[in-house]
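ok new one. same drill as before - structure tokens go in, u give me an amino acid for every spot. 194 of them this time. try not to just spam alanines like last time pls lmao
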């Protein structure tokens, strides 16, 4: 089975490929010749995932899935949320995003937050959503060199290491994207059950 994952992000692609069974060949946007940045103009995480999946389906005709992820800090009323990738500006610079987040939380004792991933799948004329959430908190400084995005400042609940310090296998097991991808895989293996 071939599926397009609507992303240019190599880190995200690597993370998801590590979760999928061997019989699923994952193609990136680059693999299908889609070099443009797909617009993400929705005001919800679900809407952005669907917008990207719709774009690939309509313009390229492939069965595909797309995800969108947001980090929601309770003390910031759920921000950066849907704007997580461009929190510090359109350059989508992870270091700048982290710096802004830590600055916004500098006087906050409430550090609780969650990562939320939504996957929108287009397959055989059907459209299905999958959601993964991981609860945790925002650290006061960056720690670790692994992962990407906000991983160096996100401490998953029940762990003493940030996502950037945990091995990829652990992050994939407990993380938001891993949970959503597991639901996606369950659906792909049992499409009639859903």
């Amino acid at each position: 089975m071939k599926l397009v994952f609507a992303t240019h992000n190599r880190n995200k692609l690597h993370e998801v490929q590590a979760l999928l069974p061997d019989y699923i060949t994952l193609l990136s946007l680059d693999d299908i010749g889609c070099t443009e940045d797909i617009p993400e103009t929705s005001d919800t995480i679900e809407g952005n995932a669907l917008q990207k999946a719709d774009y690939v389906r309509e313009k390229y005709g492939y069965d595909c899935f797309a995800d969108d992820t947001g980090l929601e800090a309770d003390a910031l009323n759920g921000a950066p949320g849907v704007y997580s990738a461009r929190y510090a500006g359109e350059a989508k610079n992870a270091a700048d995003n982290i710096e802004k987040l830590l600055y916004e939380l500098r006087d906050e004792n409430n550090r609780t937050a969650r990562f939320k991933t939504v996957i929108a799948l287009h397959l055989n004329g059907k459209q299905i959503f999958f959601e993964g959430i991981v609860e945790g908190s925002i650290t006061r400084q960056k720690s670790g060199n692994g992962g990407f995005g906000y991983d160096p400042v996100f401490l998953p609940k029940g762990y003493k290491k940030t996502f950037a310090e945990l091995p990829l296998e652990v992050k994939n097991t407990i993380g938001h994207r891993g949970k959503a991808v597991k639901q996606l895989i369950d659906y792909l293996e049992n499409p009639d059950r859903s």
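The beta strands are 2-5, 25-27, 64-73, 80-81, 112-123, 126-138, 154-156. and btw The chain has one domain: 2-189.
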